[in-house]
Please model this.
Amino acid sequence: MRKKNALTVLENIVVEEYAAEGKSLARVNGKVIFMENAIPGDLVDIRLIRNRKDWAEGLITRYHQYSADRVEPFCAHFGVCGGCQWQMLPYEKQLRYKQKQVEDNLSRIGKIALPAVQPLIGANKTRGYRNKMEYSFSNKRYLLASELADPLVSSVRDSAGFHAKGIFDKIVDIGTCHLQEEPTNLLRHAIKDWAINQHASFYDLKLQEGWLRTLQLRICTTGEVMVNVIFGYEDEKIKMLLDFLLLQFPKITTLLYTINSKRNDSLTDLNPQVFFGKGYVIEKLDNFNFKIGPKSFFQTNSLQALRLYQVIREFCGLTGGQTVYDLYCGTGSIGIFVSALAKKIIGMEIVPEAIEDARENAAINKITHASFFAGDVTDLCTEDFYVQHGKPEIIITDPPRAGMHERLIRKILDIGAGILVYASCNPATQARDLNRLDEKYRVTRIQPVDLFPHTHHIENVIRLELR
Model:
């Protein structure tokens, strides 16, 4: 260890294992050191940027030796755009570390009796697996470290791609992204080149002004393609660009545009306009069809979503006579997927637009024994509600990354359904909630599913039974 410019630098440190959120760790004199951009087996120097009594965080300043597990990343933008953090790991190693992440979180945070975690269900397709992508346009390009000292290279250049990690006002100009099938890259490049040729203004992320802003693409396994181009303001060039896209890309089944003059990119309170097609796409999971609009939530990996939903359906153990409550139901996809062997499906979601989509999805699939309600579960679930719709024998919950609110956990404990199936995209908050549910429920099955290859993210499904 040495001091340099009042900063502690640890030299020749062996990275030992992965920690949460894709970070790696090493141990030095009993202290845990967390870092990014490393894998177990790397030999590195670390400059500490945060130093506490029992732990510290650091930045890697030098790699003396790479781990034998490292492989060459397949993307030219790896390590710059902030996505696909684990491309330098063979996929089988990714699965091993994700499995360990689930096991460690559940045991360390949950602190309850648990069965063995079943082997993680990996993806057969590890590239081009996303059905949804969002790209940004900007008049400022993120410069690579090798370009910073070159006086002939400027960041002032119209670009299309992703926000640079930790930098809000510059875009990594992406050549090829491997997360979504074509025509995702062809479309992005065509829009960018057309706008440059037309001298159209790209969005300035710092000044919050400009015309060409973002691009949303959905490419479904059904072959349907939805394109939504988002602009900063109305302009006669909008029609020119959209006509150009229809001519160049006949595979587009739905083309929309959205005007966004706000300071953020959220579409929630905006009104996408249909320029061509029906305004939505249809995705298919098993024998079910789902309508997906520009503002709809849907699992971004359709092939692995099918496997995830199959696990949830299996964990429910439906026999045909049970009422199922689907909490955080979104557009109703999980409830609809398990509906064949249920007596009744009751979906609940706080977003009214999602409930409208859920009802339409039920109608599309000719499901008449499913009902969907907009509102907070803790407010909806009253004695009068139970009298009208029945109490659940099975509850499915699939909350956001923050997990379930304590009020909702208390409501679930009060309801006392015989089976609770808890799907989560964050095993850490799921483990915290399991500790609270342990008052009345015991965990009987655990099944992780990988929906996001080359990232540290993981989905996990748990079956709990009333004690």
In short: The CA atoms of residues 347 and 372 lie 4 Å apart.
